[in-house]
Structure formats: structure tokens, C-alpha cells
Amino acid sequence: xxxxxxxxxxxxxxxxxxxxxxxxxxxxxxxxxNSLWEVKQEIVDALLAADQELLIAIVSTPxxxxxxxxLSLSGNLLHGARLPGSxxxxxxxxxxxxxxxSGAWSRSNEASSRAAILEAVExxxxxxxxxxxxxxxxxxxxEDVQIFHTGGCARCLYVNKSIGVACLCxxxxxxxxxxxxxxxxxxxxxxxxxxxKYDSLWEKGKALxxxxxxxxxxxxxxxxxxxxxxx
Amino acid sequence: MSALTHKSLAVIxxxxxxxxxxxxxxxxxxxxxxxxxxxxxxxxxxxxxNFLLTDPATTTVTLDANxxxxxxxxxxxxKILLDRLKFGEITHPDSDLPLxxxxxxxxxGLDGGLDELFVQCWLTGTLLYTKNTGADALSGDLxxxxxxxxxxxxxxxxxxxxxxxxxxxxxxxxRNVRDESDDE
Lengths: 231, 184
Fold this sequence. Notes:
- The complex is a heterodimer.
- Chain A is of the alpha+beta class.
- Chain A has helices spanning 6-17, 40-59, 114-122, 174-183, 192-210, 219-224, 227-230; strands spanning 71-73, 93-96, 105-107, 109-110, 139-143, 146-149, 153-159.
- The longest helix of chain A has 20 residues, at 40-59.
- The mean pLDDT of chain A is 92.
- By secondary structure, chain B is an alpha+beta fold.
- In chain B, strands 2-6-5-4 form a 4-stranded mixed beta sheet, with no helix packed on it. Chain B has a 3-stranded antiparallel beta sheet with strand order 1-7-3, with no helix packed on it.
């Protein structure tokens, strides 16, 4: 996946704002004194914040075709362990017979409840579910933020992304990030119609991304679309 | 013998009963109780009981000086069914005919017309009493081909369909009970 370019987005945002910001910090350099957006970093940060918001919308959408690109494997999780914080729902769960994960990993079955797992763990050697503990393997249940399972340890796919210095969203959603960034740069004294337009474009762009559009349409076309049509 | 495991059997039953995948683990817990019920049912069925009789070559018990055998070890190890004992066959090498199983000790104490032909036996608790054809107490080993509770591994393939049917039936009854309680 190629991610959106923060350099390209920043250039576009500066053009649309008709700004001439100083480069690169808020306080270290002398502000440019041109326009209301005197510092370039302010524009970059607004774009990265929009990028993160869009990312959360993508990874929180089950089955989104881009979601797989943001999943990474957790560490080894013992029975009852807390799951790592994840943007969006945790992905597939695998179990290992060894507590240190040194054995083979098996795709885990989702049980019917936490109680079903606790019963299986408690009675796994009593011959109720079969002849040995392997008869209750591999099963798991996720409740709230804890994982309960019948293996030595588990691992799951999860989304662990935070705002950095580059965009995380795919480049086919780049224009939506631009609208979101501009929306976040609203300041007193600027024509509200200018930002209202980007408010609307951002909402539509985000809705399109969530509905798994392959690309955000050109601005003129997006302006004609109704948000209710997208959702 | 059956090649089914608790896991594979639960998969079959789940599909037959139309249950979702997450119910499979719970189904596994029903298999052992159903196997026990199957053993008891089969012992009463003249046509299928021969599938589930212990091997007399390996299922033996030694009589004491009074001609009494304690079956408790066979109950725990071979899982023989004491209440279905009469549907099997108990033999002794001194007798060409299997032992005649009579219902109780009071009948065993009475003289009968067939006393000289059959070695007789009766059960009191886990003790199997024998009555020899002559005056001497029977001694040596008895061999038992009697109903028992099999493990899944011991289950004859021919009885697999019956076990599956029983499990599906249990599941359906359980679901009906749940549905009815939901309605209340």
C-alpha cells in the first residue's frame, strides 16, 4: 500500500488557504507574518490529525479492504491476559500449546462464552470433553479487553498505529485527508463559508472511505453528492 | 473400532443438529454420558448387544475358596454393567455350558432340577456367587463376555450411527427445553 503524501497534502493545503507559513516549528522560528497560518507545522499537524481520524474510521470498519494493511501480531497472551489496545476490533486469534509460544500456532475457534472457556480449562484433564486436554484445544473467547483461551498462550492481530510524521492512510483517500486537514484549520476572522465547504467535503469523504470506496471522487463531483446517498 | 474422536464426532453432530460452530465444544461434553446410555440400551437389544460384549479372553476374574468372585475391579477397569450381566455370558473351563444366571441368592439356595447340569451364579452387590454342579465349590477363573461401557475408541463402527442419532436427539431435547423456558 502506498500512503498519502504529507508533503503533497501540505502544499495543497497552503495553496487553498492562500497562506505563506514559516518552516517548520511553532515557536522556534520567526513566524512569517503572512496570513493567519504563519507556521507550516500547524498545517502539517492538522493534516496528520485528519489522517489519524480517517485511519480509525477505516480500521473500525469490519471487513474494510484496507484494514488488513494495519494489522500486526500481538505478543504472547496467557489465559485471562489483557489484550493490547487496538484501534478497531482485534483480528484473528491463534493459540500455541506452549506458554512461551515455542510450539506450532493453530487458528483458534471462538467459543460460545467466557464460561465455556473457563469450564474447558477447569475440566480439560477430567475426561469430560474427551480423553485429554488436546480435545479442548484451540478455543478462545474475548470479553471486554481480556482474552480467555485453552492454549498455553495466544496471539492476535491488532491495530497499533499512532500519529507520526507521515500519513498512514492510503493515497487513494488523499483528497479526503486534505479536506479534513483544512476543516481543522478554521480560525476566527476567516469566511466561515470556506470552512463549511470543507466540513461537508470531509464528512462525505470519510463516509465514502468507510463505505469502502476505492477512491474519493473529484471535488466537484463530491460537492454534488448528498451525504445521505453515501451512507 | 471407531476412528471417531470427541472432536470429529462433535463436528458431525453439530452439522446434523444445525448448530453454529461455537456450540461444538459443549457438544463434546455430551459424548461420554451418551456413550454410557448407548451401552445400556444396546445390552437390551438382542440384535446389537453382541457388538458390545467384553472379550472373555481378557475379562476374567478369579474365584475364592467359596466359589465367590469379586467383580468390583472389572466394574472400574472394564466398565462392565452389573445390571446387564445376565444379557452376557459367563463361562468356566470345567463346564461346557455357560453359567446359568439366576436372579437372587434365595433361588440359588434352593435345590433345582437342573443343578447337576448347569453351574449357577447370582449377584449380590459386586460379589458373584457360584453354585457348582457337585459338592465342591467352583474354583479357578471365570471368563466374562458381558455388556460394558466402551470408550469412544472401543466403540464398534456399526454403532456409530446410533450414537450420533442419540446425541442429536439429546441436543434437540435440550434446545426444546431452552426454547420453552424462553417462552415463559
